[in-house]
């Protein structure tokens, strides 16, 4: 399960890093937006992400972590696809703002779930699991932007950001797989407890 949570956080960080590093460049060179105005694309992405994270606790209480990850993955991918596929500057702003909103939850929720995996009954524990997933996740921030740049140099920046959108969407099936793995682990533990007490 930890590997799956790590890949969820990795996908989130790759898509987030691609948006942070390439959104303004995309606006200038693919949509003809002036440099000053293109900076607002990144600002919109960051502001929408910040607002979503501020509302994260309330959202998780209402919808649960699984729905947050799947919904965020879908919204983030949709935003990037809108920015890439609709050749209208206004939709570039809208698309990246949606991407920021959708990608806001992937990284922190995956880390929270990783910490919960190793948590003991007394509330301690979880440090190793958190460190493991964090290490995988931060590699996405380091490798994501140059990977997108490399794809763009071979194809084009819209194609590269489209790849980032697919990576963002991949969080949804990974979340379903992680949830199944968590249930299997819980069943295994329950059976072990029942066997020990029999």
TrEMBL record:
Which UniProt key words apply to this protein?
Answer: Membrane, Transmembrane, Transmembrane helix
Q: How does it sit in the membrane?
A: Multi-pass membrane protein
Q: Which domain of life is it from?
A: Bacteria
List membrane-spanning regions: 36-56, 68-88, 94-118, 130-153, 159-179
Compartment list:
Membrane
A Pfam family of this chain: MFS_1
Keyword Transmembrane helix in record: yes
Please report the name of this protein according to its UniProt entry: MFS transporter
